[in-house]
Amino acid sequence: MVATTKEPLLEVDTITKSFGRHVAVSQVSFSVPAGAVCGFIGPNGAGKTTTMRIAATLELPDRGDVRVAGRSALLDPRGVRRMIGFMPDAYGTYAATTVAEYVDFFARAFGLKGKERLRAIDSVTDFTGLRPLLEKPISGLSKGMKQRLSLAKTLLNDPSILILDEPASGLDPRARVELRELIRILADQGKAVLVSSHILTELSEICDEVAVIESGTIQATGDIATLSAGADAAKGMQVRARFLTDVDAAQRFLAEQNFVVGTRREREGVVFGFKGDQEALADLLERTVREGLRPVEFHGERIDLEDLFLHLTQGKLQ
Amino acid sequence: MSTKTDSTLVRALDRCEPLSDRFNPILVKEVRQFLRARSFGWTFVTLVVVVAVIGALIVLSDEPRPSADLGASFTALLVWMLGIGTLVIVPLQAYQSLGSEWEAETFDQLTLSGLSPRQILGGKWLSAALQSLLILLAFVPFVALGFLMRGVDLLALGVVLVIILATSFWASALALAVSSMARARATRVVLYVLIAVATFMGVGMVASFAMELLGQPDRIGQAGFLGAFTTFLVVGTVLAGFCFEYGCGQLAHPEENTSTPLRVLTLAGTVLVLAWVALAAWLGWIPSRAVEALGALTTGGLGVLSMLWTAERQRLGRRVAHDLARPGSRTRMLPAMLLPGGSRGAVFSYVLLSLGAVYTVFGAEFGGSFHMDESRWLGVWLLCYYSFFVAMPAALLARFCQRGAGAWAVRLVMVLFLAACVVVPAVAGLLFGSNFLVNIEHPLNPFWVLPEAADGSLSMPTVVSVVVLGVVGLLVNVPRIFRGTKEILRARAGRFDDDDPAVVRSRERMLEM
After folding, report:
1. What is the pTM of this model?
2. A:199-218 residues touching chain B, CB 8 A cutoff
3. Which of A191, B51, B299, B490 is such that its CA lies 20 to 30 A from the CA of A225?
């Protein structure tokens, strides 16, 4: 489980689910606290959607359970549904319906009445920027606007937990940026957000923590910084250095130093792997200067979410 | 919330905004959709235009002074058109409406919105009823015209319209129940065709009955008509209620208790039908022998329906078990036979069919003509056959009922077992040269035994054999019933069969809340 000081709002507790002989998820556990955005990453067919559908009470686990603010998805699905908002990867809309009617229908379905319903509709359509499109038929909306509509519907009952399955898929760059901003605002409002995406660079900008899944099993969970540091230690960071003096001499010098692995020339500089910590890297820089190699650029590039994903998964298919 | 393309009806609906809060959300959505959709508009306009054109042709082709036949011909046309609109098109649209929720991937969203299966199906049923009413209202001027052409009795016309409307409601409930059963597209297409054929046949039956009634309106005043008519309405409504509740069960969460509402409704419906028949007999609206026949018919019908709950999966369901353990929960107060599980379903069926059997034995008393004919025991033979042909295979194959497909396979086995029991002795008779068996006149053939019993010509060895079959079925079920009861007692004591630590943690957390 993700170590956190906050009480988790969403707890996925050792869930296992099979479809026939195919084990979709096995012993999956992680949690998301209030106010956090948790990226749920994994290759296609890793079990992300199955896990999210179980958390949203749409599938039953064979073993294990999901708790939402202490309520069991297995034993009290209706109680859980009141607290979650689920935005699926693939969702349908009704024919011959306008944006206003669609949102209005779901507001009624959530049990909102009278002014409370109108306030909720105003609130979500303002938040998602759909207000100018209220009278437009849904069939005439762009993919990005349909995603916003789905998000608006998801937010109608003011859920404490948002489960978003590939919300950015098919969106253009601007729509992605806007969606990312909306998700961050929602997390800042204290909601717990579980979001899956294939676009890892985007997740790294909004996620506080990640859960990495492959072949139906969790490979790692935790905040990105801790996981990156762990991956750095295991894999080593990549250091890029540029020198005013003889680059070949610099490469020979670096290759002889502790913690340095795999030096190579790159334009006017040297790129090498470094398995030490930040202190050791500072020492190396000091020695390089003392050696008279005159570095003008010397920086370690920390592992990003994409590297972390590649480090934690092995590309197994199931 | 209106668009530029809104019809007057939609705008009128929007003006009723505060009032619409009280309506079922699905009903509001469906009404908005069908008022804007082309299919309903075209159906509506086509029916009205066809009636207007053919009606005009009938009028123009007749003498200047309308004869008695003219009104009857025109009303016959109306009945057919109304029947096609309300008994075929509306139920098929209801069937499609539920199916489209799966095809358009909107059903999950409905589930997550917190709408209960009863609200979802109820909204769709009400919407179908509203469509039928709208079609009927559109036909009111033509109905009035038909009456003015003479040759049509107003009361008979009223009865026919009530029958068409009621049958339309029931057909929609049936279509929704069937629609809730299948989600695979291929299966849905097959079921759609079957429903279309069945509803067309229904229109034919209703139309021929209507013609007979309109041709002989004095039959309405005859003794027995009121009893038959009201019994028809009561039985149809109970069956429609059953279809509705069955459909709700199909839409519910797999761990929810879908059995109890259906069983309670079946029990209440059975009591209502039997009480109504008794009252009608007591009032002299139906003959006393009809009580016996209706009692036996009800018992037979329950025997068939019992295939549903006798072949339910045995396990109680984790959510129901949790409810049973919680002090003060309503589930805890329920008798075991109303709780989910095939063994409890078998007990429920034995109780229900026993009720029907007892009623059939003593039912004629309500008409004041108690007699000791052998035909009174029809209900008992039906109970015995239930025990042998339904309860026994369900007990022997209980482990295959854990999944929905398995349960349906077991129900199919019940039918095949019955067929085999009828046919195999006949084959044996051919081999051993026994005419008695070749003619399928043996106790394993209910289709021979029951008519013989109705005629009061059953031999004692046959009677004893049928009772033995019933007892064998009951004895085979005893261990299963014992296990089912034990499961309930354990759950009530807070002891559960699953030892999943995550569920135990959830249960503890929820009990703390």
Report:
1. 0.82
2. none
3. A191
